């Protein structure tokens, strides 16, 4: 089992924790990780892009000049793609980009992402993360104590003081254990997790 240090909010090591190898010590499956990220990005796409083809552009019904004898190339419509204000060749139409991954694939991808963070020493465990009030300055101090800038902070429950204090920090994102996803785990340089959140992750995904 991988063993990681547990820090307090002052950045001092206060304990150690053994992580479950079934989640934090699996063989990394890069293909599944790639597919999970691709799925999340694809599912977030609106798919509302639209342009008009030559049959949809208004006008162009009349032939601009006669077929022969003008010295010009023959033209059938002023709305053909080569004309200004003409239609678009192979114009994009609204479509659904989303696709599905099954539950086992999603879990395996998340385990792979978490394992890679632990292996790279970019997984920090906090004994607790509690703030008495909504104060961004105090939250930033905690991040500085941990020597962390761009981080995903995983909480076990909905702690309004911590979440709202972190809202004004552009390089930090907070998430609860049920919101964990591969894209966020990989996007941020460091994953900061409370001790309680680690236990919940191990119970849910083991």
UniProtKB/TrEMBL annotation:
An annotated Gene Ontology molecular function: rRNA binding
Region (Disordered): 44-81
Basic residues: compositionally biased ranges: 60-71
InterPro entries assigned to the protein according to its UniProt record, in alphabetical order: Ribosomal_uL4 (IPR002136), Ribosomal_uL4-like (IPR013005), Ribosomal_uL4_dom_sf (IPR023574)
This protein's UniProt keywords: Ribonucleoprotein, Ribosomal protein, RNA-binding, rRNA-binding
Record GO biological process: translation
Gene Ontology annotations for the cellular component aspect, listed alphabetically: ribonucleoprotein complex; ribosome
Protein's UniProt keywords contain Lipid metabolism: no
Family label: Belongs to the universal ribosomal protein uL4 family.
Subunit organization: Part of the 50S ribosomal subunit.
PANTHER family: 50S RIBOSOMAL PROTEIN L4, LARGE RIBOSOMAL SUBUNIT PROTEIN UL4M
Function as written in the Swiss-Prot or TrEMBL entry: One of the primary rRNA binding proteins, this protein initially binds near the 5'-end of the 23S rRNA. It is important during the early stages of 50S assembly. It makes multiple contacts with different domains of the 23S rRNA in the assembled 50S subunit and ribosome.
Name the UniProt record assigns to this protein: Large ribosomal subunit protein uL4
